[in-house]
What we know:
A five-stranded parallel sheet has the order 6-5-4-10-21, covered by helices on one side. The chain is of the alpha/beta class and 380 residues long. The mean pLDDT is 89. Helices cover 28% and strands 22% of the residues. A hairpin with a 3-residue loop joins strand 1 and strand 2. The protein has helices at residues 2-13, 37-44, 64-75, 110-123, 174-177, 188-193, 206-216, 237-245, 319-324, 357-379; strands at residues 23-26, 30-33, 54-55, 57-60, 80-84, 127-130, 134-137, 143-147, 152-155, 158-160, 164-166, 182-183, 199-202, 222-225, 249-252, 256-262, 266-272, 278-281, 286-288, 292-294, 343-345. The chain is built from ten helices and 21 strands.
Amino acid sequence: MERDTAVQETLDKFGVGVEDVPVLICRGTQVLRKPTIEDVADCLGLSDLNETVVRDLAVIGAGPAGLSTAVYAASEGLDVLVIEARSPGGQAGSSSRIENYLGFPTGVSGQTLASSALVQAEKFGAELAVARTVSRLGCDRPYRLELGAGIVVQSRSIVIATGVKYRKPDLPDLARFEGVGVYYGATQVEALFCRGEDVIVVGGGNSAGQAAVFLSEAGRNVTMMVRGSGLAQSMSRYLIRRIQETPNITLLTNTRLVALQGDSRLGGVTWRDGQGVETTADIRHVFMMTGADPNTAWLQDCVALDGQGYVRTGSDLDAAVLAEARWPFARPPLLFETSRPGVFAIGDVRANSVKRVAAAVGEGSVCVQLVHKVLAESVA
């Protein structure tokens, strides 16, 4: 009660109410009501960007693909700017343990991998701008990137590494329980919330398998739910074997969540099996690992996308697409190059890419050599 009173007194002091939450009090006096992530960055003095300089390379996204590009490009002397909307790591950063990444026989957390890569990139001179969302890519060179708060940066080449965003199932009240019982990543932070309690993992991909194994290590019961008849089509064999060998992981196939219950936080769930039988259980923690969609909404007017919204590159660009885009060169697009010369796409956001951390890192290293070619081409 005393704590609630103190909180209300603080809100009253700054003239804000509950309807203004979240509130950020910055530098002691500046009050931001329901601020955007860009507002927070500006208030805290993060990522002040020079809008006059034209950089050699702008990398959009700081997941494994983007950070790999930044490390190799900066180490080879290019002026590199990395723009990240949230925090470095991308979707891989939410993985509690990646066990099949080369050189880490006991596994490595996605966040640890991303943090190390970020240190490398900055060591070589790459500039990182966090809490900055690119809203539009200008289609003429030098390329203009429009960010929030009216900021525009320019670059002679672009690498799109924006990855994917979590796919959310059509489930009543899902948004109400996000962060208070429903999670989209399984890290040490989420594990603390559900210590000693039963959990549900929804999904049949590698991220779901990694989450289930990680959460099972604390002795809790983990129920995996997949809509299909099994895991073989969507999960690596080593993870399937780990799941089969872990006694406190139960796999329910042909099953889907249909309802969430609770007041201020999740208190229970209901699922339906293939025969239409519904089961309700007092489980307070659900990890949604149901796939993802590409982060490409900001690109639709500039580079060619496939039917699912992934960026088409290299040999995936046919003559008709290039003609429509007014491709200016006699040469075809380079590997990973989009329908705009000097604009590349790598990692999960690229059409027909291999959805693996190692593949994303490899594409980033290869892409830098192609960036050198287009930069030399633009000077010639």
